[in-house]
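It is worth pausing here to work through a concrete case rather than discussing structure prediction in the abstract. The textbook approach is simple: state the sequence, then state the predicted structure, then interpret. We follow exactly that order.
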Amino acid sequence: MITGASGRIYDPLPIDNAAGFPQRFPLLLNGVRYEFSLYANVPEPLLGPNPSLTTIGPTAAANATLRFAAVPGTILPGMLIVDVTTGTVIPMGTTVVSTTAATVVMSQNATGAGVGSGDKIEFNNELMALPDGQRFLVVRVDVLGTDGTQQTIFLRKVVPSVEYRAGGLMLTFPKQIVARRNLNNPGNLGSNVIGGVTLL
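Step two, the predicted structure:
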């Protein structure tokens, strides 16, 4: 169950985050057949290279905390971490566990000589917390008629704090995290989009 900002209770929508985006799925509610479509609107220039930061101090072997001048909000748990300067000192598959304003805690300790001060650290598979500037989640809802007709009752970008009316439905999308690598690509890559629906 999902509780909206108004206190209204919603049933979860069957969003398959591993299917990638865009995606669509049918839903039968109160005898009415709906089709939901979701996609992340991300202009190509905003994709750019994977985000990277430069360390401001060393991280010794057997330590898992990286230090930076500042850690932006786009660095999120689940992102893969690669030391571009010295590739072997961060084990393959290491991910972000947590962040502060100036540190990143890794899922595995540094190895060998450790991470050096001034090393370039790349964070693969950016997790986009939407909406973010020009990037946002778009939801479309169609009613499917028994005669094969289709009527769009909802088409708009959505934000987490708002509840929406779509014909005889109320919708909410309180969490909208889309992994960059899940754009037009399936896989368990860290996307976490949650949506809820209830009848009016």
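Step three, interpretation. The chain is about 0% helix and 45% strand. The mean pLDDT is 93.
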